[in-house]
Specification:
Oligomer: single chain
Helix content: 25-40%
Shape: globular
CATH topology of the largest domain: Rossmann fold
Strand content: 5-15%
Strand order of the largest sheet: 7-6-5-8-9
Radius of gyration: 19 Å
CATH architecture of the largest domain: 3-Layer(aba) Sandwich
Number of helices: 11
Bound molecules: phosphoric acid mono(formamide)ester, norvaline
Order of helices and strands: HEHEHEHEHEHEHEHEHEHH
CATH class of the largest domain: Alpha Beta
Structural class: alpha/beta
Length: 313
């Protein structure tokens, strides 16, 4: 059965741990794994801008011995209205996997439903699951594990990063807190799904408008831009109490690390002192996109081969 990664909970807790372990192995021996030798081609499609995702998939696929076919919507027929289903049927006959950054989650679900090759979510409006794998790898490196740690996210509670932290951290058995304006909370269905996962992994979920409460004693502080792609011009004044600055960091554990998926806006969601300071893990986090995605692609392709173990029910 073909395996896709469209949202963080497409991996069970055991599977997420396997992918993260493989990512650590691939980081230690960066050029030692070439499962895409041939080369197999992976289509990497962008309906929105990208720096890190574009670079890390292109570099990672090359390091695995494969070829990355990187396409922007503006230069493909998809951007002129060709249907997702027709694109999926054309791609599956020529590429080994499809990586796609797009807007609505329904679009990537339609792509996955229409193709026999693995589809990977490289960011939608609802989730950014590849980023969370890299973030979990970064936390595990800094802290020696994940289970039982507390990650607190601040700012836009209704965006892709908040939603993916909810599902991805709950899957890892972490305590995840979202500090966000009461008027702009995460999607209730995603909070409920994260609570369901956390109940089985020993984690927990807290959504609060009290930033100080969210930060108290946390092992990891995380934030993201207040203005996601496609939201240009939005009013951000409600987010101001949720800026990750030295005052907020002082409420966290003394050894806390700080994450930001980047691009960052110093003086808005994060202060320059914190982003560029000693607790910041953001550059390692950006590098780990490479290792986590190499592991993910390798794992998905292995699991999608005929006769491979089937996935969760
Ligand atoms: N963090 C992230 O996905 O960055 P890009 O938008 O540059 O790919
Ligand atoms: N929430 C941000 C993440 C960028 C990587 C966005 O969607 O623009």
């Amino acid at each position: 059965m073909v395996r896709h990664f469209l949202r963080d909970d497409d991996l069970t807790p055991a599977e997420q741990a396997e992918v993260l372990e493989l990512a650590a192995v691939m980081k230690r021996d960066r050029f030692g794994y070439r499962p895409l030798e041939g080369p197999r081609t992976v289509a990497v499609l962008f309906d929105k801008p990208s720096t890190r995702t574009r670079i890390s998939f292109a570099v990672g696929i090359a390091e695995l011995g494969g070829h990355a076919l990187v396409l922007d919507a503006g230069t493909s027929q998809l951007g002129r209205g060709e249907s997702i289903a027709d694109t999926a049927r054309v791609l599956e006959r020529q590429v080994g996997a499809i990586v796609w950054r797009t807007s609505a989650q329904e679009r990537i679900e339609e792509m996955a439903a229409g193709t026999s090759v693995p589809v990977v979510n490289a960011l939608t409006d609802l989730f950014h699951p590849c980023q969370i794998l890299a973030d979990l790898q970064t936390v595990a490196e800094a802290k020696g594990g994940l289970k039982g740690l507390t990650l607190a996210y601040f700012g836009d509670g209704a965006n892709n990063m908040a939603h993916s932290y909810l599902l991805g951290c709950a899957t890892a058995g972490m305590h995840v807190r979202i500090g966000a304006p009461a008027a702009l909370p995460p999607e209730p269905a995603i909070v409920a799904r994260a609570e369901e996962i956390a109940a089985s992994t020993g984690g927990s979920v807290t959504v609060t408008s009290d930033a100080a409460r969210a930060a108290a004693g946390a092992d990891v502080l995380a934030t993201d831009t207040w203005v996601s792609m496609g939201q240009e011009g939005k009013d951000t004044s409600l987010y101001e109490p949720y800026a990750v600055d030295e005052a907020l960091l002082s409420r966290a554990d003394g050894e806390a690390i700080v994450l930001h998926c980047l691009p960052a806006y110093r003086g808005k969601e994060i202060s320059a002192a914190v982003l560029d300071g000693p607790r910041s893990a953001v550059w390692n986090e950006a590098e780990n996109r490479l290792h986590a995605q190499k592991a993910l692609l390798t794992w998905l392709l292995q699991r999608s081969e005929p006769g491979a173990e089937s996935g969760p029910e």
